[in-house]
Specification:
By secondary structure, the chain is an all-alpha fold. Helix content is about 75%, strand content about 0%. α3 packs antiparallel against α5.
Length: about 170
C-alpha cells in the first residue's frame, strides 16, 4: 500500500511539474507579445513624428495643414497613453553596463543635435549588429553593450536604428 501512495505522489508531482512547464511557455509567449507591443508603440510614435515634421505639408492649404496637425497630435496623445513594460532581470554588472551604454548613446544624441552628420552614431550602431559592419566600430561601446543583458542589447540596437532613421529622415526634409 505504501508503494501505491508513493507512485501516486510521484504522478501528482509529475503532473504539477508538467503544468509549470506549460505555464513557463505561456509566460515567455506573454513576454514576447508585450515586447512586440513595445516595439509597435515605438514604431507608431516614430511614424507620427515623421509625418508631423514633413516639409511637403507646405503644398496643402492652411486648413488642411491644421487638420493634419490636430490629427497627428491626437494620435500621438492616444499612442502615449498605451503603457506596456517588460522588465529585464539584470545582475549588477549588466545594470552598470546598461547605464554606461545609455550614457554613451545620450552623449552621441546630444552631439548629433549639434551636428547632423551622424558618423559616430554609425560607429555605435556598428558595435551592436551581429553581422560584419560596413564601416569602423566603436570598440569601447561594443564591449559595454556585450556586457548588457540580451534584452537590453536588443533595445539598444533598436534605439540606435531609430536614431539613424531619424537622422536620415531629417536630412531628407
Amino acid at each position: 500500500n505504501g508503494f501505491f501512495r508513493s507512485t501516486s505522489m510521484a504522478d501528482h508531482s509529475s503532473r504539477l511539474l508538467e503544468c509549470l512547464n506549460q505555464l513557463e511557455l505561456r509566460v515567455e509567449a506573454l513576454r514576447e507579445a508585450a515586447s512586440s507591443m513595445e516595439q509597435e508603440k515605438e514604431t507608431l510614435l516614430e511614424m507620427i513624428h515623421n509625418i508631423q515634421n514633413r516639409q511637403d505639408t507646405r503644398n496643402v492649404s492652411e486648413g488642411e495643414r491644421e487638420e493634419l496637425n490636430l490629427t497627428a497630435k491626437r494620435l500621438m496623445g492616444r499612442t502615449l497613453t498605451v503603457e506596456v513594460s517588460v522588465e529585464t532581470i539584470r545582475n549588477p554588472q549588466q545594470q552598470e553596463s546598461l547605464l554606461h551604454a545609455t550614457e554613451m548613446i545620450d552623449e552621441v544624441v546630444n552631439k548629433l543635435l549639434d551636428d547632423l552628420e551622424g558618423s559616430k552614431n554609425r560607429l555605435l550602431y556598428g558595435a551592436c549588429i551581429s553581422e560584419v559592419p560596413s564601416g569602423p566600430v566603436n570598440q569601447k561601446f561594443q564591449s559595454v553593450v556585450i556586457e548588457c543583458a540580451i534584452e537590453d542589447q536588443k533595445k539598444i540596437k533598436r534605439r540606435l536604428e531609430t536614431l539613424l532613421r531619424n537622422t536620415e529622415n531629417s536630412r531628407n526634409f
